[in-house]
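Supplementary Text 2. Reproducibility record for the structural model of the 341-residue chain.

All settings were left at their defaults, and a single model was retained for analysis rather than an ensemble. We include the record here because the model underlies the residue-level annotations in Supplementary Table 4.
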Amino acid sequence: MLTVLLAACTSSANTSTTLATSSPPSTSTTTLTATPSSTAAGDRSGVHEFPVPTGSHPHDVAPAAEGGVWYTAQATGKLGHLDPLTGNTREADLGSGSAPHGVIVGADGAAWVTDGGLNAIVRVDPHSLAVSTYAVPSPSANLNTATFDGGGRLWFTGQSGIYGRLDVVTGKADVFNAPKGGGSYGIDSCPDGTVWFASLAGSYIARIDVVSGAATVVEPPTSGQGARRVWCDSKSRVWVSEWNAGQVAMYEPASGAWKEWRLPGARPQAYAVFVDDADVVWLTDFGANAIVRFDPTSESFTPFPLPSPSAEVRQLLGRHGEVWGAESGTDKLVRVSGAPR
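Retained model, structure tokens:
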């Protein structure tokens, strides 16, 4: 185990704004047939692919409260909703120029979207699909992902070199300059109330002070590893997918200790990371075209090869017994269910 802790702190609020615009929903509904698929020999769970409308290039997913799954149709500027039982999809048009990246579900049950094309945070009502838009006061922020803190504020990242927060009650948005410039990518909230983000270009993770907005940099042991996404487990340990290094890392804030593990295979590329409700770690590996399960107890990997070639799963989320991803390369969503624990 390697133990490294290097820290620096910066806080630079650029601008703030209060703006929310609403529009009636522009929706469409498509019925597609879900096609259960089995992986190659060695598969130990059900891997199912669900087609979404052609040309969607879905980027992120988020299980919805009622059992469906939201997805961002990045190429068509829409937020989609899949019913896994029927294969039906319905979509809300987010507006001219939209290019949605991330989606999460808030305490209100709504889908909250980081939209790089609109340079805005977008809320989509789970029932009516009505769209509300909150402008981000930083031009060309290249918005990426979002998370809610314990106080209900939405924090987000922009690869142009910013991170920010939105007060969803007042609609006021604040933006901060990220340490070391561009690259802010994945973000997540821990059970202890802390918020962390990863910088792909900067190869670091950072803890955000949710009161002041200041960010404290923490460097992983491997230089230039390409920290892409982060996720917290039940103990508020921070798990990191290291894209350039093909590794998964774990940082324990209480001790300052790091551990890193290289994914199996000749040329792994760890894109997404997600920790389920049993503290099992899941990753996507572009190099192996697989979703990979990592057991922190045994420190062992179980790959789940994807049925479709060049699936390009860029993000994972889940609920009890299910892990979901978006196959941006195939216009499908994918579910791993009943996975061994």
